[in-house]
Amino acid sequence: MPTEPPADPIQTLWQTQSKEIEAMQLEQIVVKARAFQAKVRRRQLREYVAAAFGIVVFAIYAYVFPGWMIKTGSVLCILGMVNIVWQRHYRTATRRLPEAPAAALVDFHRSELVRHRDAVGGSWLWEIAPMLPGAALILLGRWFQVHALDVPLAPDRMIIVLGTIIVALTLVIVVLVRRIYVYRLQQQIDELDRLRDAGTVPP
Amino acid sequence: MSGKSSQDERYVRAAAEFGAALERMARAYEADPELRRDLLQEIHIALWRSLARFDGRCSERTWVYRVAHNMGASHVRRRRRIARQQFTTLDDLSVATRPSSDNPEIQVADKHAFARLMDLIHALAPVDRQVVLLYLEGLDAAAIGEVTGFSPGAVATKLHRLRAVLAAQFQQGGRHAD
Asked: pTM (2 decimals)?
């Protein structure tokens, strides 16, 4: 592959900048690679511990609160969390080390944008949807079977309705923002396709 | 020669030949010195790992540049999500001449010229940044096309625009032959 001599002063300016970082030895590379892998494992472990904490909380809900709706809802939330953890493990298992395929840059860009688009566009399905049936049953259980102590029925139900509306609105906003983001990612993908396929120089 | 020693030897050779270029690349993808050091380490680790799969279908230099730029672009994407940074493109940059002295060599040699060049590079979207960096490393249009995967027409268009931008920003004439 030919390299042009830096006849352009800007190229000279660029190529003659001073070096500031000491070169890494091969042994250091191998050690760093192993250390990074250990760091990723620790991060995954923290996610599992956080999920385990959530599961314990819902298990306490199922044990403490009366009424089959809240109990069943809590069990469904536990199953939902297990599903989320499994999905996350499955989706991140292939990216344990900093790895960049030696594909042409435009192909790598495109695959990353597509991966990101699909993750953002579809993640609410596997991150939020598994929790919805359980959360809905818990709310129904609060409405029909369990009421807050020392609070009149009407204000208690008002709190449940307001809470449900706030959660629903938040979900709608999150989904809309993600759809806009996905649209913008798709525009970038289309632009890359145009650059890759363009065969002529504009005047 | 075993696969492992072949990988190690390739890495040592590539690091010796392209180490300085990789550091310049890291500087172009990350302004913060500490994060830059981390990025450079990640690039070297990725390069060492990738060379286990080197199949000779492209030159080692193309391979090295691809791996390094892909790591740099991934880093920029991660940082952009955190900092919510907006990028520009070569097409958005002004080609209006900056007010300056009449001597082009003085302009390029100016102590602020390098800082201005870095500002320009850091503002660019990853795709345009890669083309600019490969040009600054001295690769010709065909070589840039091989590394990036862009069509020759797209590379020529971007280089034409880049030279106009550089000429305007630094008041010096770039070469016009690919």
From this structure: 0.66
